[in-house]
Amino acid sequence: MIIQATEAHTAGMKELWKKCFTQEDPRENEFFFKAEYKPEYGYVLIEDSKVAAGVCRMPHALMFNGRVLRTSMIVGVATLPEYRNRGYMHQIMDTVLNACEHSELITLVQAYDPSLYAPYGFEMIYKRSEYVLTRMDVKRITNFGCAYEPTPIDMLKVYSAFIRRFNGFYARDLNDFEVLRKEIIARGGKVVAYYNGKNQIMGYATMFKQGAYLKIEECVYLDSMSLIKLLNAALQERATVILNVSQAENLSVLFPNAGVKIIGSTMARLNNPQLFSRLFRTPVHTIQDAYVLSAKPLNLNETM
Fold this sequence. Notes:
By secondary structure, this protein is of the alpha+beta class. Helix content is 29%, strand content 34%.
């Protein structure tokens, strides 16, 4: 039986994630259930009086061509090992997508294995560039102007200026940055910001140490100087830095010798082509048709 989750199912959802997502940082999952998850976001399949399979539907506001669209990100699709190969994933995806079709034009899914979601009408829309940078790639400059622990309001200000270049992004508010800072701390990471001579924030980067590497999961910058300042701060932590940015951010001019690869990030599904066509006054039939209308390059960094 598939039902919308209640508070009584939260422990079962946590256990499901613990057993199925062993590759994930447990601190990240713990923070998710503490600060971001709400029972009504979950759909669960109950078997033998326990959560045998589940999924989370995280609601968001998506900015697309100047309009705010209601959307959601499908995450945490999982089945306990002992209940697999019974078609439970298919059942639970059909249920949650039926709910999506009645309330939103576009639904997103964070797809580490795109082949799992293509049968449900999802297509890879967002891609990211992963740069591998060393000291040889980044001009050495002082860290003057760099500061740790920028305020959420400063992060919101510079993010709002940065994201205007792009399309198809989440509409973030101050609370989003308050939660983001708490998550970074909970996961053992840090935020480094760069302020110019007028004490105006010009960029920030979220940094996490991963063995011999330092990974920058989100990098927001208003000019190349801000980016180089942030990377210099990162290279003081580790000799190799992995920088994730949107595919539209071509940094090959700044770092011509750096290794780079393109990674599929987020898939999208168009739930109602007719309504989308009327809203944007252009006939569309597929999700690819819809995103071709994008007036600016895409950028969606979030995974939840």
